[in-house]
Write a structure and sequence with these properties.
Two copies of one chain form a homodimer.
Chain A: E1 5-11, H1 19-34, E2 37-43, H2 49-60, H3 66-90, E3 95-98, E4 105-107, E5 116-119, H4 122-129, E6 133-137, E7 140-142, E8 148-150, H5 155-167, E9 171-176, E10 197-199, H6 200-208, H7 216-225, E11 228-233, E12 241-244, E13 257-261, E14 264-273, H8 278-288, E15 293-300, E16 305-313, H9 317-331, E17 335-339, E18 342-348, H10 358-368, E19 375-379, E20 382-388, H11 392-409
Parallel strand pairs in A: 1-2, 1-9, 2-6, 3-6, 9-11, 10-12
Antiparallel strand pairs in A: 4-5, 7-8, 11-12, 13-18, 14-16, 14-17, 15-16, 18-20, 19-20
Chain lengths: 410, 410
């Protein structure tokens, strides 16, 4: 008997939104079974089920207990696993469903945002050995005291990657409602390209900068355990995008994507006497008030006076301004300037590290079109510029053209 | 510290049908907490949730796996326990919810109709000791291999009684949408009386003969473990009916209720030579074909020839007739007569055992009104008569009047 080829597949909410969609998923799984794969399937709750449950809870309590929310929300995935098992049976494919509790997906006790600590493979392997498709409820686990926990946003992706890791396979497919990872948001850039491959690092940077196709925690997990994530559509048979180690990539572009964000605001505290502890005091204060800071730039000017600029979510803008005003004098700053409406446009790519001049070329492109750069921040895998909100789409288009469309023509 | 007074309360689907109803249930529980009770609550799925899930499964499979149906249906109760815990928290009452799995309600592996084998009280007692209201999902358990099972019709009542038994309390309240157990169906008899007390045996007989307020399995369970079941409405504060051992009853009526059934048919196989094995052959044949037989009457006539009359559900009538035709000659019977439309009217009461003449009085009453009795069957706690369907309501009214309304006037 040949060794089992195990594949883990994860189907998101839109892929299992209706009984018809669940039947279509069963067909797809059947193809893999016929090809000799041992299939482990992770599913999310159907369509908008989770939202419905959240608003049901909202009718009872404005601040429900997190333990009870996890008890409530975990039912969504449990419904899907049972229905998918029935759909597979209907197609004469042997299958069995398991809750997170039943395959002992043990997490910490951090309700609503738990981290997976271990998974028992005994029951899964026994079922796979019995030629059953194994269906596991995503997003959920139990803590060491047998309370039901959920993994937070993108949790089912994380469940799938963790299962691939413990089952010792590198093959993990993430089925969603888009064809893969694109070089830009199609709502912003007219003809973005689908990437065949992307590195973990680029994918993380894209997630951080606004691409929503994969949650960053699942990508970090995949990187840690060296799992190849195939992001693809459950509505077609086309290949999607494989997220993989950079050293395994066949082709590497200088940049792999352009992202935009329109939900942040910029604040600058001007002319602070440059002494230790100022930045730490400022950002701890914001953090203690649960204000998430994205870009931070500090520049030292004349007379050893520094200005600190940073961006916060637009929703947090008013509160952040209040806090800055409250410590302005303590800092000895000359004043605060701010801009509520800004855009952040970013280029992401591991190729940038080895290609000098990417940043320069990006700035050139923006300046050629008369777009003023108000703030710049760079990381290992990306360059972000704060610009006027009115120019956001134009900036994304011309950067995309310069780096991703010209190459195609070359 | 005084000993804890534990009470188990079960709330059915209509009692928790909406968030508002769940808040009302929380208020009621709060009253018991204030009175010093340690409260264990068992809940059903909200309103029509179970029906909705069943039809969802029906869209995928006409004959879904029972294991997967149990996986699916058990989510209904899980939603309710979480919401009720939130509702109690909202009223500043400490509470915690548990699935059947979490309190180790161990059942046999008979999916969709499992029997409870044991319940672990450790976690429940620990929570009660910590002054928490404990909310347990009804209707569900797990088998010894950790598969989720459900208990079948009336399962949540059974969960509640079983919990009362293992927690060593006799107090179990069953909240429903009616005020208690009545002497007759108010759709048939105009002013039935609510019984303050009823014995287990009478309640079982009423359930068997068509009263749907409690499922017989939970009553059997209560009888076995000597639990007093208080059946009452969650929509009012009035006392309901207590189901209890006959020897504890304060007042005993000759009969406690009149029931009617209109969903059965009568079949008679005539003039069978009286030899051993005929009845066994007939009823095994019907049983093997999953035809449920209710009343059976055998009479021996002249020449040692016997006639066997029995009733079956109207839905099974055609199939039952076919089977009878197929063995008629083998039996040497002279023929088959049948009547598809009949009514069964029954009087139920433990008092009948000690009151000679109840049967006679019942027959008198029927005959005074010109109602012909086509078949009679008696048990320890009841007398049932098959009559013409047209006379069903009249028969119920006059029997109710003779036994239950005259007493009131006396």
């Amino acid at each position: 008997m040949p060794e089992q080829k195990i594949i883990v597949q994860k189907y998101g909410g839109t892929s299992v939104a209706t009984p018809e969609r669940i039947m279509a998923v069963a067909d797809r799984i059947g193809r893999y079974v016929n090809d000799g794969y041992s299939v482990v399937v992770v599913v999310s709750a159907m369509g908008k089920t989770t939202d419905t449950l959240v608003s049901l809870a909202g009718e009872i309590s404005s601040k429900p207990s997190k333990r009870e929310m996890d008890m409530l929300l975990s039912t969504g995935e449990q419904v899907t696993i049972a229905l998918l098992a029935m759909a597979l049976h209907e197609k004469d494919i042997d299958a069995i469903s398991y809750t997170g509790s039943q395959v002992k997906i043990i997490t910490d006790g951090n309700f609503s945002n738990a981290r997976i600590q271990s998974i028992s493979t005994d029951r899964i392997k026994e079922s796979l050995f019995g030629n059953k498709v194994v269906i596991v409820a995503g997003f959920q686990g139990i803590d060491t005291e047998d309370n039901i926990t959920t993994l937070g946003r993108g949790g089912s992706d994380t469940s799938a990657v963790a299962l691939a890791a413990v089952l010792g396979t590198r093959d993990c497919e993430i089925y969603t409602d888009v064809q893969g990872v694109f070089t830009a948001d199609p709502r912003v850039v007219t003809h973005p390209k689908k990437l065949e491959e992307i590195s973990y690092e680029e994918m993380l940077e894209l997630s951080r900068l606004g691409a929503s196709v994969l949650h960053s925690r699942s990508v970090e997990f995949a990187k840690k355990y060296n799992i190849r994530l195939h992001v693809r559509s459950s509505f077609s048979l086309e290949q999607g995008t494989i997220v993989m180690p950079v050293e395994e990539m066949m082709e590497k572009f200088v940049i792999s994507g352009v992202t935009t964000k329109a939900d942040e605001s910029k604040i600058t505290i001007r002319d602070i006497p440059d002494r230790p502890g100022i930045a730490s005091r400022l950002f701890n204060l914001l953090g203690d008030n649960k204000i998430y800071v994205n870009m931070i730039v500090q520049s030292t000017g004349i007379d050893n006076k520094a200005s600190i600029s940073f961006t916060v979510l637009k929703n947090d803008y008013d509160r952040a301004m209040e806090l800055c005003e409250s410590i302005k004098d303590e800092f000895g700053a000359s004043g605060i300037t701010s801009k509520k409406e800004i855009a952040i446009v970013s280029a992401v790519g591991v190729g940038m590290l080895s290609s000098y001049g990417v940043a320069g070329r990006m700035f050139d492109v923006l300046s050629e079109h008369g777009i003023n750069i108000e703030m710049i921040s760079t990381s290992e895998t990306g360059i972000s510029c704060v610009i006027d909100l009115d120019y956001m789409e134009l900036a994304a288009k011309i950067i995309h053209k310069a780096f991703l469309e010209e190459e195609q023509q070359a």
